[in-house]
């Protein structure tokens, strides 16, 4: 009986998060920027972390991936602030602690939101680091506002290939119905098979947050937004514009990364032909003028979690 009660309590703990993560503690104080998008009043959450020591006068902004928020950047923030950087860490609209409106999601709108955030903070120049979906956003931001970007850093960005050319189309409604089926077990399995080469206990915290929202009464709204942002990624490629980037760029790649957006829709033989970052990384680096490529062996989709020491050294060395 005691074991059963413990299991029930553990299950409830896994399913107790709100869709704006009010009950998830972020590593630094969170502030909110009010925005109006498509006639809706929304709030964009962000952390503005000051240098831990002597300020060097430079700013880094961190763009998270699709299944994450600002909470997973802790070690990167600490490494940067320790070296005098001011670090801005937004949760994009639709993610993390930010509002979850029903709008037309676009990387252009995200870029504009972040430009507005930086303006509100009086910041004129930034280094941009984008991971996964955040890499697509970082690319769009750099293309739209090249005068603001000192350097572009891409950590295992998705969108290195055009998913429309080989992933079958599904409607937002179909994606919504799929998202509604999300469970703790399905999230953990996805993270285990898609993000890391070898599972470690500390990764369970990512699953706890990623799956915790499924127990919220508002989870249908979260699922709808997840479907709309999947549609955004699918329909708004950036891979054809890498040659237009005009700022110094560094591409960080986990060589065992095999991420494909919509992978579950593909037959195994098609999966094997795509998402091969050991190939996509060098190919993409050649498309971006003057791009530097840094690769990590025995590493999947999230280098700053899987090989943190190697990643942080490479990051700091290339700032």
TrEMBL record:
One of its GO terms (molecular function) is hydrolase activity. It comes from the Bacteria. It comes from Mucilaginibacter paludis DSM 18603. SUPFAM superfamilies: alpha/beta-Hydrolases (SSF53474). The keyword Cytoplasm does not apply. Keywords: Hydrolase. This is Alpha/beta hydrolase fold containing protein. Transmembrane segments: none annotated. One of its GO terms (cellular component) is membrane. Residues 59-157 form the AB hydrolase-1 domain.
């Amino acid at each position: 009986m005691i074991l059963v009660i413990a299991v029930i309590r553990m299950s409830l703990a896994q399913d107790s998060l709100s869709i704006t993560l009010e009950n998830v503690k972020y590593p630094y104080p969170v502030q909110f920027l009010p925005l109006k998008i498509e006639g809706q009043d929304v709030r964009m959450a962000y952390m503005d972390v000051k240098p831990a020591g002597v300020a060097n006068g430079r700013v880094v902004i961190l763009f998270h991936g699709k299944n994450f928020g600002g909470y997973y950047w802790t070690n990167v923030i600490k490494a940067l602030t320790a070296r005098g950087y001011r670090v801005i860490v937004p949760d994009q609209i639709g993610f993390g602690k930010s509002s979850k409106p029903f709008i037309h999601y676009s990387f252009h709108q995200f870029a504009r939101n972040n430009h507005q955030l930086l303006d509100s903070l009086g910041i004129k120049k930034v280094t941009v680091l984008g991971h996964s979906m955040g890499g697509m956003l970082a690319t769009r931001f750099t293309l739209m506002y090249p005068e603001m970007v000192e350097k572009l850093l891409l950590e295992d960005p998705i969108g290195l290939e055009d998913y429309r050319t080989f992933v079958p189309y599904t409607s937002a409604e179909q994606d919504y119905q799929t998202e509604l089926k999300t469970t703790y077990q399905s999230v953990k399995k996805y993270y285990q098979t898609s993000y890391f080469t070898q599972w470690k206990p500390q990764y369970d915290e990512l699953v706890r947050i990623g799956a915790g929202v499924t127990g919220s009464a508002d989870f249908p709204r979260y699922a709808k937004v997840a479907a709309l942002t999947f549609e955004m990624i699918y329909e708004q490629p950036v891979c054809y514009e890498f040659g237009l980037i005009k700022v110094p760029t560094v591409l960080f790649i986990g060589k065992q990364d095999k991420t494909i957006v919509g992978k579950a829709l593909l037959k195994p033989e098609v999966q094997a032909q795509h998402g091969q970052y050991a190939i996509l990384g060098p190919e993409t680096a050649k498309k971006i003028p003057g791009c530097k490529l840094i690769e990590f062996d025995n590493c999947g989709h999230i280098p700053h979690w899987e090989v943190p020491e190697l990643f942080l050294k490479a990051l700091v060395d290339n700032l």
